[in-house]
Design a protein that fits this description.
Helix content is 22%, strand content 24%. By secondary structure, it is α/β, with parallel strands linked by helices.
Length: 111
């Protein structure tokens, strides 16, 4: 099982390997996210430095910037940082701008 941290609510599944996938989503709070990520055994797929910094501060855990493509498989879990506001096309937020936006933390599991 791999645990990922992502900056979208998208759950990437490799449909070259599977025909169908079931994913369970659950909104979680900051404390629950900290507990899930606290052992440091996770893969960051946070591609923007400002987002990684905000998440690091929010969670009290170093979240590295890591612009990679990932696929989730059965048994994998992810913590999603989901902004509740759609940004204008091409807009990259600063750390200060990110701190002012509403967000959800969502846990997903591929069943």
């Amino acid at each position: 099982m791999t645990v990922f941290i992502l900056n979208s609510l998208i759950t990437p599944i490799n449909f070259d390997k599977v025909q169908t996938a079931r994913v369970r989503f659950e909104r979680i709070d900051v404390e629950r996210a900290k507990n899930i990520l606290s052992n440091g055994n996770f893969v960051s797929a946070i591609g923007h430095e400002g987002t990684a910094k905000v998440l690091s501060q929010l969670l009290g855990i170093n979240i590295p910037t890591n612009r990679v493509s990932i696929f989730m498989e059965t048994g994998d879990m992810a913590i999603h940082f989901f902004l509740k506001t759609r940004l204008p096309e091409g807009k990259i937020l600063s750390e200060q701008e990110l701190k002012q936006l509403d967000f959800w933390l969502v846990k997903s599991e591929v069943l």
